[in-house]
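Lab notebook, bench 4. The sequencing result for the construct came back, and we need a structural model before the next group meeting so we can plan mutations. Quick request posted to the team channel:

Model the 3D structure of this chain.
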Amino acid sequence: MRRRKARLSSLFALALVAAIAFSPLPSVRPQTTPTRSGLVTEIEATAARHAKTNTSMQTQHMIELYAEDGEQVGLSKREIANFYEEKYIEVQETLQPGPWAGLLPNQASVVLAIMSLLGIIGAAFKDRITQLIEAILDWLYSQLAGTKFLQTTALNRYRRSLVDKHAQLRIPFRPNRPLEMAEVFVPLKVAGSASVTSEIDAYRAITEHRRLMVTGQPGSGKTMLLKHVALTYGRNQLNMLSDRPVPVLLELHRLSDPDLSREALIQELVAAFRRDGFPKAERFVAQSLKQGKLLLLLDGLDEVNSGVRSQVVKQIQDLLDECDKCRAIITCHL
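Done. Here's the predicted structure in token form:
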């Protein structure tokens, strides 16, 4: 009898240990007094872990998880989302395959053969070799940027180009002292239709309306608004638009063909991407128009030559009707 009781006691103890060992631990955060810098570090560490494990963005979950502590240290929900998403994108971009990942085997073999031959020439021509290799890489990128494999690389270069182009405002009477966009841009207030007298923030209007016509007197900030939208995207901060469109800025004075066709208008959008570091973008533009992934920034309708303006307006209307999912902002003199 005693042996039986001993065996039963042993079995009970083993079962208890196993239950404790294999029970899932609750997912809780340590209860410590939060600080702003500590919360930011924790949020960014979580974002980095999600990016490295290929977990999809968990912005709403992070807001819910840190909202209470954030209020205690002056960290708003918008800031929580921004810190999380910016770190997630930063880490994800470092994990993206390089521009060589999309090359076909025979193309990669040619490049490797060229690089091997250059290595034999010797260290005396190191600088020239480096320049030559960079030229080869740039040429390959210019030929293959429009492929699916290099789309991420092309969009990253496009973002950097938008930042380089719009971060500073070059003023004719200050040729060597450009102004910083962040210092001179004033968040605009825009009015609604003639029957609506209240004004709202321009970015709120962009968020709430997929199509906008912005009118105003010369110098009222219409063009600067479009440039600021492009710059905001370049800095990965266009987070208020849930569908994450890619802005493309087209100055409408470039359209001077009285027989402008829809295809020619689309090619102007392709050319705008090319000017900002994304060559061979025909495939990307066609798919993005169809899927509603572009934000068309069409600047200066009043600057189009009066002889072709009606044709330009017609083609813009037809394109927007056909691509009804795309966002668009058009500026025009009042």
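The first strand starts at residue 168 and ends at 171.
Will bring this to the meeting.
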